[in-house]
Amino acid sequence: MSRDDVMRKVSDIFCDVMDLDEVDLKDETTADDVDEWDSLSHVRLIVSVEKAFSIKFSNAEIAELSRFGDLIDAILAKTAT
Amino acid sequence: MSRFEVADLPWLRPVPPDFRRTCKEMAAAPAVSGASLRDLSDHAHDLNGLIRLAKVIQSAEERIERDGALSPVSLGLLSSATTDYLAPAIVASGPRHGILPNLFVAEYGQFAQEVFGDDTPLQGSKPDAVLLAFDPRALGFAGSEIDPGAAEARVADALYQVANLAEGIRSRVGASVVLQTLAVPPEPWCGHYDRRVAGALASMIASFNDRLARFASESGSLVLDVAALADLVGRVTWHDHAQWHSAKLPFALELTPLYADHVARLLAALRGKARKCLVLDLDNTIWGGVIGDDGLEGIRIGQGSAEGEAFLAVQAYALGLKKRGVILAVCSKNEEENALQPFREHPDMLLREEDIAVFVANWQDKATNVREIARRLNIGTDALVFLDDNPAERARIRQMLPEVAVPEVPEDPAFYPAAVAHSGFFETISLSAEDFQRAESYRANAARTSAMEKMGSLDEYLASLDMVCDLAPFDTVGRARITQLTNKSNQFNLTTRRYTEREIEEMETDPRCFTLQVRLTDKFGDNGMISVVVFKRTADDPEAWECDTWLMSCRVLGRRVEEAALAAVVGGALEAGARRLIGLYLPTAKNKMVADHFGKLGFVKISEEANGSSRWQLDLSEYERRSLPMRLTGALAPESA
């Protein structure tokens, strides 16, 4: 999957989790930029992403994800063949 | 080999593609019907979907039409873990089971104050039930104990904590209590030896769970068996330590829809919404093949093939349900003679004709037949579960009778019992001797209906029934059944007042209450307890008794049981020196049939409100007891004239 593809897919998941119609997510976007993105919806986001891409994050890895771009990079790293 | 992944709720339909759009439309609509919320909830939503639906429900609030599809239930939630997901998940899962849950989450660390204090928010929320959702850590189970005395102390202490809160909830909050068993953490202490040492965490928790179940029976509490739920999906799947460490989630987030569905089904059972009858299709549902085409020798049922054994298991499962009071019916598109033949002649069939209370086989549309089945059993269509391998027939029933529960089944019949069993539509919170007899009595009653159709006049027919009607006050033995009836009766129910077992117990000794439980037997069998009546001395008029509750099972309509009950009430009232009886009719979507109940008994209407409720009066000096076609027995039976 290309980086753009992953971003698109994760944006869809993001909208489903946060109950938004659309969202403009960039690499620099953080939880501070989106009202609905709090610690609890973050857990749901991670779990939904894990399920959609068939990957697993450890708590240590989750703690490193502060920007949206970090999440995309982590997904790409885990799904690279 | 196919799998049946319980955590995905596979007995529910997949979420429709327009779900998000439907939610938006509902949020904007001027009114939302209870039925539409029920239909929307009735899909295999994941947690994101449940949260979205819960938002729609909670913002809809006063816009929800009281169309009778959903019963409101107030639930208090006490938990030491994160509950932020549980609350919306329970709210959104409720409507598929016919309830509209309203949750109050007590603040962590404040449980004792909320339960035992004065005028606390928990008390003020007036919950119908309070769920004590504790995990092992919250009750002091931190690890294994080497000393058996210490192990015993741990278990006893944990039970005491729960029992203490439970008692407080019953007495100070006035709600039913739902206790949770504990799931055993998956890491063993010794390994296979754990079961043999009392101090192993697994052993202590097992001991706690056993004692909790006993305590529940003694205290009239409900049990949500989380230990069984964790075993169902596997304790390794149930426990997600990483999620606990980071967010204090009590079990894996992905299992929230399953947990919420189980809470909802238990509350629905408490509200009397559990289903009563399983309607079975025949071809490829309880045997392999089509009887009309394959004939008796061609259908696959019994040992000898995987298919035959799978269908045998479906029949065995249905019989198991019948044993505990679920009624079985058949709805098949076949010539009746063909459909009956395997029941009568096939040696490997487990189900026989006498196991089926109503047998309908014809070429009519199944929706019409299903309605007829409900009519003959005198139960609502919302008390039925419909099992059919054919997705077109399932869709038809869902379309025409959305209140009928229709579990999705996979292609492989090996999983049909699982689909019905895990759906929870027949969840029960008690079992009594009457449950065991019920299937037989419904079958006998359907036989009575046919007999009635053949007899001439009503009086001839009634007299031929050899009825014996027992009239007695409330007592310990009848208490559970009385409580059950006050919660389940919808149609023949004058005031639709729902009571907990505790409240019924209080009525037994309340000097202001005249209580009456009515039992009826006839030549076909014992109908059990079929009517509950409560009159109360009024505060402002000491010469009048007002009707608090008058309900009756629809099974015994037209038998003049109401007149026998009235005779008992009049007898009690006269003995106590009262002069008047006041009747009250509070209309609901389901009880139109009793709008004129008091009129038929000779009461005079004294007032009527715009909403349809009415008050009636019977002057006891004008009461005339008529002779009834039944023998009256029991402590409250009037002396023969």
Q: Helix content range of the residues of chain B, please?
A: 40-55%
Given helix and strand content, the structural type of chain A is: mainly alpha
Total domains of chain B: 3
CATH hierarchy, class of chain A:
Mainly Alpha
| Cα separation of the termini of chain B | 73 Å
Counting copies of identical and different chains, the oligomeric state is heterodimer
Please estimate the helix content of chain A. 55-70%
Uncertain segments of chain A: none
Q: How much strand of chain B?
A: 15-25%
CATH class of the largest domain in chain B: Alpha Beta
What's the CATH superfamily of the largest domain in chain B, by name? SGNH hydrolase
Which descriptor suits the 3D outline of chain B?
globular
Number of strands of chain B: 19
Q: Give the number of DSSP strands of chain A.
A: 0
General form of chain A: globular
Describe the largest sheet of chain A. Answer: none
- Second CATH tier, the architecture of chain A: Orthogonal Bundle
Order of helices and strands of chain A: HHHH
Q: What is the count of distinct domains of chain A?
A: 1
CATH topology of the largest domain in chain B, by name, is Rossmann fold
Short account of what is shown:
The complex is a heterodimer of chains A (81) and B (641). Chain A is mostly helical and 81 residues long. Chain A is 60% helix and 0% strand.
What's the layout of helices and strands?
The complex is a heterodimer of chains A (81) and B (641).
Chain A: H1 3-18, H2 39-53, H3 59-64, H4 68-79
Helix pairs in contact in A: 1-2, 1-4
Chain B: H1 19-28, E1 32-33, H2 34-41, H3 47-60, E2 64-65, E3 71-79, H4 86-93, E4 99-105, H5 111-116, H6 121-124, E5 129-133, H7 148-173, E6 176-180, H8 201-219, E7 222-224, H9 226-233, H10 235-238, H11 241-247, H12 256-270, E8 277-280, H13 291-298, H14 306-323, E9 327-333, H15 336-345, E10 358-362, H16 366-377, E11 384-387, H17 391-400, H18 416-423, H19 433-454, H20 458-464, E12 467-472, H21 479-488, H22 501-509, E13 513-522, E14 525-537, E15 544-552, H23 561-575, E16 580-585, H24 597-600, E17 604-608, E18 614-619, E19 630-633
Parallel strand pairs in B: 1-2, 3-4, 3-5, 5-6, 6-7, 8-9, 8-11, 9-10, 12-19, 15-16
Antiparallel strand pairs in B: 12-13, 13-14, 14-15, 16-18, 17-18
